[in-house]
Amino acid sequence: MINVHTLTFSPFQENTYVVWDETKEAIIVDPGCYDASEEEALKGFIESNELKVVKIVNTHCHLDHVFGNKFCQDTFGVKLYIPKGEIETLAMGADAAARYGIPGFVTSTHDELLENEGELTFGNTSLQILYVPGHSPGHLVFFDKDQKIALGGDVLFKASIGRTDLPGGDHQTLLDNIKNVMYALPDETIVYPGHGPFTTIGDEKRSNPFVRG
Which residues belong to any copy of the Metallo-beta-lactamase domain (predicted)? Predict the structure, then answer.
């Protein structure tokens, strides 16, 4: 059984997720910690709960989701896993930070690539990998089919969807993948998004103004 803890970081109000199971092995999904106080908040939560971080994972590699990649790699001594379609996006991080006028961006380098299907494992847990591009070219979602939990990145939000005007984005691709991939999940699935509050697949199918089920 997995536990999901949310920490919201940076001016982008990005949701960083610490996910662990009964073994106390944990993954950090989309570490967005930007300054020292946010880094300490993440580290402090992990230490106070006696968790063992075994992987750093990105759903996609836009700037706000990778601020803390290098800090986590160095602090916890583990590998960074990114989608295989996000190599170029990760490499553009410093340029994106400059465009937004954000100082102090620390570049990270991936250690392992995630395929567009298969499983992401830690402890006793296996999360299904779902390929859901559109917001970014290689975007992945991680789904726990037993507890019906989706770590959704910037695909689907409460009453909204991910933006598609950044490099590699495509609006119709995103809409199609929400309908064909996300909305194929059980209605009771809880979606933990990259920004804002959690939602469920059923709620979005009924009331999302951009994509109805």
Answer: 13-195
